[in-house]
Amino acid sequence: MDGNGRWAKQRGKERLYGHIEGAESVRACCELAVEMGIGYLSLYAFSTENWNRPQDEVIGLMNLMAKSILEEKPTFEKNNIRFMVLGDRSHLSDELKRDIDKAMEETSGNTGLTLIVFLSYSGKWDIEQAARRYAEDYKSGKEGISFENYLCTAGIPDPDLLIRTSGEQRISNFLLWQCAYTEFYFTETLWPDFRKPQFRLAIETFASRERRFGKTSEQIK
Ligand code: IPE
Ligand code: MG
Asked: What is the pLDDT at residue 178?
């Protein structure tokens, strides 16, 4: 979800104003995902590297996260949404961790859309923490376990489609392992302007692509 800062700047406002408007795009995209019966929607909200932003922006983003979780809880229930937050929790405040755990617990039985917010996440961090735990288990004699089960996305299918807004064309340390066969979609639209019509267009574009997973066109027919 990129471009909140530029969106705010274009309007002569503070960056946080763009993040707040971006939260509206999150709501709209969740709604469309529910309407379309999409199984999983993952949002890259805050990377490990984002901790290096100015302190007031970091605090603003964390507060916005806490506020959004509390505000959206009734929607999770109403729309049968299973809510998850994944990432390196070590830098999160105790209060935020509590709110996250509570929302995850309360929605864990929901069977509709799984909404995953990646918070304080980086793909390299994920692979490292997985490798460490994998090596420990390997040393203690556990065998035949798939490495993927150690990534924090264990049990969650790899993404079919990755959308990056605001004209940037890079992965910026998101799901490095998991995106091995993901389709990429880039758009100039800034995240606060990315609403249902834009999301629908991305999904339609994705639907018209042929995915071969290394095979030939004839093989997958
Ligand atoms: C949102 O957009 C991404 C977050 C880390 C919350 P940005 O804040 O990166 O917006 P730009 O790139 O400055 O426009
Ligand atoms: Mg950015």
From this structure: 98
Give pTM, 2 decimals.
0.97
Distances (CA, A) of 119 to 10, 36, 51, 90, 103: 26, 25, 11, 11, 15
**At the topology level of CATH, where does 4-207 sit?**
Undecaprenyl pyrophosphate synthetase (3.40.1180)
Distance of CA 151 to the CA centre of its chain: 15
Q: Is 164 in the pocket of ligand 1 (CB under 6 A)?
A: no
Residue pair 18/8 in contact by the 8 Å Cβ criterion: yes
pLDDT value for 98: 98
Ligand 1 probe mutation, 1, 4, 6, 174, most atoms within 8 A of CB: 4
What is the mean pLDDT for each group of 10 consecutive residues in the chain (221 residues)? 98 98 98 98 98 98 98 97 98 98 98 98 98 96 91 98 98 98 98 99 97 95 86
Q: Which ligand has an atom closest to residue 57 CA?
A: 1
Say which DSSP state 159 is in.
P
CA 51–ligand 2 middle distance (angstroms): 13
User: Does residue 156 contact residue 40 with C-beta atoms inside 8 Å?
Assistant: yes
